[in-house]
Amino acid sequence: MNLALVPVKRLAAGKSRLAAALGRETTEALTLAMLGDVIDAIHASHCADRVVVVTPDPDVGEAARALRAEARVADDPGLNAALDAAAGALADPAGALLVLLGDVAGATGADLARLFEALGREPGPAAVLAPARDGGTAALLRRPPAAIPSCFGEGSAKAHRGAAERAGVRFLELPLASLAIDLDRSDDARALLASDAPAPRTRALLARVLEAR
Predict the structure, then answer these.
(1) CB-CB contact of 11 with 57 (8 Å)
(2) Kindly report the CA angle at 130 between 59 and 146, in degrees rounded to 5?
(3) What is the CA radius of gyration of the chain?
(4) Is the N end or the C end of the chain the one with fewer CB atoms within 10 Å?
(5) Is the four-CA dihedral 82, 85, 90, 94 of positive or negative sign?
(6) Cβ neighbours around 3 below 10 Å, total
(7) Three-class DSSP category at 150
(8) Which are the contacts of 198, defined by CB distance < 8 A and separation ≥ 6?
(9) 142: which strand partners?
(10) Share in percent of the chain as helix, strand, coil (round to 5)
(11) Regarding the domain delimited by 3-211, which CATH topology (the fold level of the hierarchy) does it fall under?
């Protein structure tokens, strides 16, 4: 059984750089719009048997359930600790684990399926990473789920590669256009709007915001 985890911070605390440009209320609405687009993309890939949103925010958990996902709501021990704890509790040791960041709103089911196809070509333990354009990790697929630890954060693509090397795990980096942009800053929003990524909820909200200015 394949598990997909989507981490999302507290609405009141996340996306501080976007909040400075858009305002906190709009940024919170944008976070939920992005989450909807991300969950839709995972469902569209037909590769994950379970989709679980990992968050310390009960409101995000409620939104996740309304979007046909599960929610794991718990105190915030930090992103990587929360992801590895969720994987340890929920993942099938014989299956694959996908982590897709909740702000990669342009993700498509087809690109997520490409990650699983690449992993399927590997005979043993492996990790497949889709890099973000800033050197981070937009998505990480692992089999088995504990093949390498989560190393999300600044420069995480390099950190995940290093973790795979230390563990002796096959590592593939697969650049995918729809997974390249994670929305952290205003220029990320502009880049998404200029791309051909679907992101219908996110695009609609950003269009309303721009029209109001």
Answers:
(1) yes
(2) 75
(3) 16
(4) C
(5) positive
(6) 21
(7) coil
(8) 37, 106, 108
(9) 97, 127
(10) 45, 15, 35
(11) Spore Coat Polysaccharide Biosynthesis Protein SpsA; Chain A (3.90.550)
Convert the pLDDT of each residue in 25-69 to its tens digit.
989 999 999 999 999 999 999 999 999 999 999 999 999 999 999
Task: Give the CA distances from residue 66 to residues 36, 39, 53, in Å, rounded to whole numbers and listed in that order.
Answer: 9, 11, 12
Residue 205 has which token pair? Answer: 């909200």
Q: Residue type at 170? A: R
> How would you label 145-174 residue by residue, b for 16+ Cβ within 10 Å and e otherwise?
bebbbbbbeeebbebbbebbeeeebbbbeb
Q: What is the pLDDT of residues 99-137, one digit of tens each?
A: 999 999 999 999 999 999 999 999 999 999 999 998 999
- Alpha-carbon distance of 115 to 176, in angstroms, equals 9
Q: Provide the residue ranges of all domains of the chain, joining segments of one domain with +.
A: 3-211
Token pair 């694959």 is found at 96
